[in-house]
Request: fold
Amino acid sequence: MKKLKLWLILSMIICLFLSDQVLSSGKGDKVSSEKFHEFNINRPDLWPEPTSYAGHIPVYEKFSNIEPMFHLDNDTTYIINFWATWCKPCLEELPYLEEVNEKYKKDKIKVILCSLDFPKQIESKLLPFVEKKKLKSTVVVLLDGNFNEWIDKVSNEWSGAIPVTYIYNGNKKYFADAPFHSTQELEEIIKPFILNNNLN
Reply:
């Protein structure tokens, strides 16, 4: 009987040690991330979990990590803009996206600025830029450089150039493959989405 108790105690100690090793390693984080991604597929109303953070900005290593963001199933219209700090036309249209984000918050419009900045420039250029411009829209980073493997999943109209903007609410979608030149231009595009939001 004493031997059995001793064996049980030793087994518990070994199990606790092994579980602590898994939790303190990167493998534990990877498993939880995979489970979250799988859970997101089953619950398309959930925001996808980032791979990591740069400051307060969510970072996604692969397009597959961020892809649920293009299939959120709720009453919000999402304006997802692909841009980078090294892209002059991208920076020129940012104020229009920012204005729409602030102006139409009550109309369930959400602007997401998906940065395609190079990994080495996230800390040195992107973070200071976001801070300096005090961007109010949601900023995320996508590091997946295998563009040919995923741009068609956004739109088969996308040539690969930026800026581009993908707008959707449920089955209603719009793809802009050129920069906006005014807030009014963007407002004209989202008007049908706002009307659709108000009907729901």
Summary: Residues 28 and 180 are 43 Å apart (CA to CA). Confidence is low (pLDDT under 50) at residues 1-42. Helices lie at 2-24, 26-42, 63-66, 88-103, 122-133, 147-154, 183-199. The radius of gyration is 22 Å.
